[in-house]
Amino acid sequence: MAAARFDPQDPGFAERVRASFDRQGAMHTIGATLTSVEPGSVVIELPWSAGLTQQHGFLHAGMVATALDSACGYAGSSLMAADAGVLTIEYKINLLAPARGQRFRMVGEVLKPGRTITVAEGRAYAIDDGREKLIATMHCTLMAITGRDGIRH
Amino acid sequence: MAAARFDPQDPGFAERVRASFDRQGAMHTIGATLTSVEPGSVVIELPWSAGLTQQHGFLHAGMVATALDSACGYAGSSLMAADAGVLTIEYKINLLAPARGQRFRMVGEVLKPGRTITVAEGRAYAIDDGREKLIATMHCTLMAITGRDGIRH
Amino acid sequence: MAAARFDPQDPGFAERVRASFDRQGAMHTIGATLTSVEPGSVVIELPWSAGLTQQHGFLHAGMVATALDSACGYAGSSLMAADAGVLTIEYKINLLAPARGQRFRMVGEVLKPGRTITVAEGRAYAIDDGREKLIATMHCTLMAITGRDGIRH
Amino acid sequence: MAAARFDPQDPGFAERVRASFDRQGAMHTIGATLTSVEPGSVVIELPWSAGLTQQHGFLHAGMVATALDSACGYAGSSLMAADAGVLTIEYKINLLAPARGQRFRMVGEVLKPGRTITVAEGRAYAIDDGREKLIATMHCTLMAITGRDGIRH
Hints:
The structure is a homotetramer.
Chain A: H1 13-22, H2 25-29, E1 33-38, E2 41-47, H3 61-77, E3 85-95, E4 103-112, E5 117-128, E6 131-145
Antiparallel strand pairs in A: 1-2, 2-4, 3-6, 4-5, 5-6
């Protein structure tokens, strides 16, 4: 993961990210919490729940991706201008191990910020009986949007 | 999308897929229904709901991916042996347009089946005021698993 | 693959694409020829050669990708404005079968054109003893660039 | 990038990787050299050359991918059994900046080795007037193949 430090353009980035997170119905549904918002780096956590599972009782890959996509998107958003919205253009996720655990931690980090295009990476960890294991990696491309109806941060 | 027709190894593939789908807590949570199960081709539909949204009120990209991943995975599973489980190794999703609509239709199709590795493609459509629009494409790599504890179809 | 028909913005798109292709040293090196340039659809062909192989004597995946990336990029470029340059932001390639054959055909098609972002898909076929086989699929995201030094079509 | 250290199964991994690299016609064509082979980590370098360019004179994205794919593939191969061949199933590349420079360094590292499936990551750096810049990232899925005709390391 990128170890780079970034300077935010918008000093109010953390409040802006938190307010946007609270508007995501999907984050409420999956029981996710925003546990860290730093410039270019965001952490989201959620507990296991039966409503998020695939057929073997592990977290569904799509639910892992839902939380990871939000972590990456908000990592990108944290470095954007105050009036920019962020859209995920595409992402790829590699599922390294079954999402088995009681709790999950998703870390999104900006690899390269840009005026229009930002590239971010994510890591998903499962916490199973106190041990943390890397279960998925995400690589995503984000676009900053300004002045488009219905798209805000 | 692939127009190829495939011969299933397991004559009971449709019941097997339906039973597995019913065990996915995530599909219940997102309100998804399995509307078609053909050899190498599966359709999943779901209605918009506030609990699935991102900050602009559209379907969260992760929720689109959750349904699309299940459609692709079950398309692959339909061509596998009766005792094989299916795991998603990785997928990529391109989000072509905001997921704005009252209803969503996810089509998963096998591009190339294989003994170990199967490649599938997905298309997500939003139905908005009666018009259907392509909103996302998925490309995913699946693995057939046999004889591993805790992994079944 | 997309069956859509697109209207080009630039009536001189085919000449523009051909002139750009001729400036790609990499296309000369791999022996590629531009065999079709239609709005949103481009075909590139090349023969097998020992200088393009991996360790088993098949075409190297990177060389398949090189030709496929050009096919997708020029498919996108064909729909862009006359003064726009095209950059590949990212692509994913799935290698479905070894690239074994005497000749290879790469088809790039636009799935969704856009003012800034264009999404394209590619298919690579190997022609082996007269039979054509799908060996790889590509999905890529392109960006139109205008007014940036050193970037032209 | 992964900082993990891995134990090779095959004590002769480095010679095996070097011998395979020498059989890749594509590596000769692009002027690539294998500059480091460690367990789970491989570095490949190459100079700029006119025969590897796209229309702006930068390294063609496909050529960056060719070298990066080999770096990732051999990183995976270094941890496999002596009689296993390695196939790239799929990869994704994000192009972060134009490949402008006199020399290029490609680093491939295993993120998660496996009996069948190995996941690796790559970083491509351009060295331009003595300064090194990250220009691309790759994420790829490899498969170990044994006992298949025509596929060896």
